[in-house]
Amino acid sequence: MDSVRSPEWPVAPLGGVAANSAAARYGMSPGTGPIVGRAGPPASAPPPYRPSSETGPVPPPAGKRAAPPIPVKILVAGGFGVGKTTTVGAISEIAPLTTEAEMTTAGIGVDDPGARSTKTTTTVAMDFGCVTIDRSLKLYLFGTPGQTRFGFMWDDLARGALGALVVVDSARLDDCFPAVDFFERAGLPFVVGVNAFDGRLALELGEIRWALAIGDHVPLVQFDARDRLSVRDALLVVLDRALDRATRDRRA
User: Fold this and answer.
1) pLDDT band at 106, cuts 50/70/90?
2) Do 197 and 225 meet the contact criterion of CB atoms below 8 Å apart?
3) Is residue 18 part of a domain?
4) Is-contact 158 152, C-beta < 8 A?
5) Cα 62 from chain centre
6) CA atoms in the 13 A half-sphere facing the CB of 153
7) Residue 113 domain flag
8) What is the span of the domain harbouring residue 216?
9) Alpha helices (H) in 19-159, listed in sequence order
10) Nearest Cα to Cα of residue 94 among 159, 138, 145, 158
11) Among 14, 140, 185, 165, residue whose Cα is nearest residue 82
């Protein structure tokens, strides 16, 4: 993990192309055609993702004290204004730690939350929450900041993580390219979760997979960042993906 670089988001001039857009990252001219995503998937992709069919943990013998739950660190990442803070807050069993700051006019032309957003604050460090899956497993959730200028923090937040949920706004797919690239370079198992703003998506899941150029080994799910059960289901896919990777590594 120490060799993985943080997402590279060059700062764009005021009123110019968004710094973390596909046009800025891949040398496209604005208005030249549809965004087709990144250059392509990794050269050697793992086998397609298949959910585990194994049963849950075996309860301890009668009269024996259960061991404390195993802590698992999971990242909630993505572009600016896609719903990372909402995701952590919806599922956390404790009052989530947030580092929200008021957005100011200095961010106009730099931070673009999208036309539908009513966002007035932004994460300037990280979000933190936790949720107990069962008596043997507890997830600790770390939400990353989404703006260009906080990309240097991703390396530190990713240390010790077993998996990540990359939150995506289907109407602004170019904002999630840096997150997908980061976790592919890091070799960290991740799941792409498409946040259903207003209960609907701008594109079909198949179209989103094609645009992001992610392989079949990467799970792609739709969820609602405001709904606890929906967030739970998305995180369980992340956990299953991490366990699947750990099992394959142990057999290798």
Assistant:
1) very low
2) no
3) no
4) no
5) 40
6) 16
7) no
8) 65-104+121-251
9) 22-26, 84-91, 154-158
10) 138
11) 165
Q: What share of the chain is helix, strand, coil (3-state, %, to 5)?
A: 30, 20, 50
Task: State pLDDT tens for residues 204-224.
Answer: 999 999 999 998 889 999 999
Confidence check: pLDDT of 53 > 90: no
In a domain, 186, yes or no: yes
Short-list 238, 47, 50, CA closest to 139: 238
Residue 115 φ then ψ, to 5°: -65, -30
pLDDT value for 229: 94
Q: Rounded to an integer, what distance in angstroms lies between the CA atom of residue 126 and that of residue 97?
A: 8
One-letter identity of residue 250: R
Under 8 Å CB-to-CB from 133, ≥6 apart: which residues? 69, 139, 236, 239
Rounded distance, CA 23 to CA 190, Å? 25
pLDDT digits 0-9 by tens, 135-150: 888 999 998 886 666 6
Provide the number of structural domains found in the chain. 1
- What is the domain-level CATH number for residue 137? 3.40.50.300
Distance (Å, rounded) from C-alpha 66 to C-alpha 59?
8
- Asked whether residue 21 is assigned to any structural domain, the reply reads no
Q: What are the DSSP E strand ranges found in 170-211?
A: 190-195
